[in-house]
Design goal:
The complex is a heterodimer of chains A (202) and B (240).
Chain A (H helix, E strand, L loop, with lengths): L3 H7 L44 H26 L12 H5 L1 H4 L8 H46 L1 H7 L38
Chain B lengths: L1 H4 L10 E11 L9 H17 L13 E2 L3 E2 L2 H14 L8 H5 L13 E9 L2 E5 L2 E3 L6 H13 L4 E4 L6 E6 L2 H6 L3 E13 L9 E8 L9 H8 L8
Parallel strand pairs in B: 1-9
Antiparallel strand pairs in B: 1-4, 1-6, 2-3, 4-5, 4-10, 7-9, 8-9
Classes of the chains: A mainly alpha (202), B alpha+beta (240).
Keywords (chain B): Mitochondrion, Ribonucleoprotein, Ribosomal protein, Transit peptide
InterPro entries (chain B): NUDIX_hydrolase-like_dom_sf, Ribosomal_mL46, Ribosomal_mL46_N, Ribosomal_mL46_NUDIX
Protein name (chain B): Large ribosomal subunit protein mL46
Chain lengths: 202, 240
């Protein structure tokens, strides 16, 4: 007779003796104790009967819904026409009121001064024109110089030329910080300050 | 039609060495001093601006600053305080120590102009002031040659930003006659341009004797003239 020990050796995961339950069924496939189990869920249940609603009420409900939507649309349309005010573009009322008080009482400009100013404006225009011309010539010169270098390179080696005209992705996006008005102060620590955000919320 | 598409290089029996050179520029830190006309015109514009303006709160006796009623402070007091604070603040000088000592190795010099890196490099038997250059090696682009030239001559500590892979300028010179018969006739130098970012020059010995950061306007002191001319061609200032 083959004893239970043999069976348990053959099917190690099958427990022959359920620990808490004294049952005539000797074999179960679960290793943990067999306890109460609730049904997991119902897969189906009988359909509910549809409620009949009075068509009058239905109509009323729909009406109410419509009215609410219309109201919302009206409110949106009303607000859409109002823009955020731009403070900088509006002259403060205080300034308009105090205009008289705030105007400067300066003596009128003498004709000589006016003449000097007119001449200075003309001289400035000439100066800027010259500067601009020089700039254009400089750019032309640099481009011409580069073109010449490229031509020479192509004469020497087509391969190197092709390598040179490849896109240099390291340059994009290009960033440069311009010259400042004053040189940086070495080992300068900026004073601490409070950051107050005064921008309005709309 | 076929003519338009022909791109093959012209075959010559002369052989030239290809050389990549890197012009490292330190961009100006501060703006230039205003010229005479710029100064007078700025003053005029400010005067006109003043004439057109209305009085502000701090001017005249329109409004006194009243902070919580405790700290009663007049506009004049406030103005004096600001002036005092400004007077206490020391701006860094435009003319630095290195300017006074004329230390050509320092980068803290001539803050308002471009500085170019030059090395006294051994070419053939003699030393010449040139920008770092190196012979082209098989397989690398010319811009890589130029970057390598900088590293070989001035050490790896120097960080620069290469401005494009396209050469900016060109210069060629011939070797001495006895050399010419053996191999290449001369060298074709292709200049690349880079902006200085950080780091210090650590000059490689043997091939280099010295280095300096030269203002770009003084590039014409570099001999031969043809060389400094070709370099200046793609700089902002050029020989008039």
């Amino acid at each position: 007779m083959v004893g239970p020990s043999f069976l348990s050796a053959a099917f190690s995961r099958i427990s022959l003796v359920a620990p808490c339950i004294n049952s005539t069924r000797g074999i179960t496939l679960y290793s943990n104790p067999l306890l109460f189990k609730t049904t997991a869920y119902l897969n189906a249940e009988p359909l509910k009967k549809k409620k009949r609603i009075d068509p009058q009420i239905l109509k009323q409900r729909e009406e109410r819904k419509k009215r609410r939507l219309e109201k919302q649309i009206r409110r949106l349309e009303k607000n859409a026409r109002q823009f955020k005010p731009i403070d900088e573009l509006e002259v403060p009322l205080k300034l308009i009121d105090e205009r008289e008080l705030r105007t400067r009482n300066l003596s009128p400009i003498s004709p000589e001064e006016e003449e000097r100013r007119a001449l200075l404006f003309k001289a400035w225009a000439r100066y800027k024109r010259e500067q601009r011309l020089e700039e254009i010539q400089m750019i032309d010169r640099v481009i011409f110089c580069q073109q010449k270098a490229m031509d020479e390179l192509r004469k020497e080696s087509e391969d190197l030329y092709q390598k040179a005209i490849q896109l240099d992705t390291e340059l994009i996006p290009f960033e440069a910080t311009g010259p400042m008005r004053t040189p940086p102060i070495k080992a300068y620590e900026g004073p601490d300050g409070e950051y107050i955000d005064v921008s309005k919320k709309w | 039609m076929a003519k338009n598409f022909s791109t093959t290089s012209k075959v010559t029996n002369e052989k030239w060495d290809l050389v990549g050179a890197l012009v490292v520029e330190r961009r100006p830190v501060i703006i230039k001093e205003l010229t005479e006309i710029e100064k007078t015109f700025t003053d005029l514009l400010q005067q006109i601006e003043f004439e057109k303006s209305l009085k502000s709160d701090h001017e005249g006796d329109i409004d006194n600053i009243d902070l919580d009623g405790v700290n009663q402070q007049t506009a004049q007091d406030f103005k004096d305080m600001c002036k005092e604070e400004l007077a206490k603040f020391n701006l860094a000088p435009r003319i630095t120590e290195s300017d006074k000592k004329n230390d050509l190795k320092s980068l803290d010099r001539c803050l308002d102009s471009h500085l170019l890196l030059l090395v006294e490099h051994k070419l053939g038997g003699t030393y010449n002031w040139i920008v770092p250059q190196s012979l082209h090696q098989e397989g690398e682009g010319l811009h890589e040659t130029a970057l390598r030239a900088l590293e070989e001559n001035c050490g790896g500590d120097l960080k620069v930003k290469l401005l494009g892979r396209v050469p900016w300028g060109f210069y060629k010179y011939k070797y001495p006659r006895d050399l010419r018969e053996k191999g290449p006739v001369g060298a074709k130098v292709f200049f690349f341009k880079a902006n200085y970012l950080s780091g210090q020059v650590k000059l490689a010995p043997k091939i280099n004797k010295d280095f300096k950061w030269l203002e770009s306007s003084k590039i014409f002191d570099v001999k031969p003239d043809a060389y400094s001319d070709s370099v200046s061609q793609f700089l902002l200032s050029c020989r008039r």
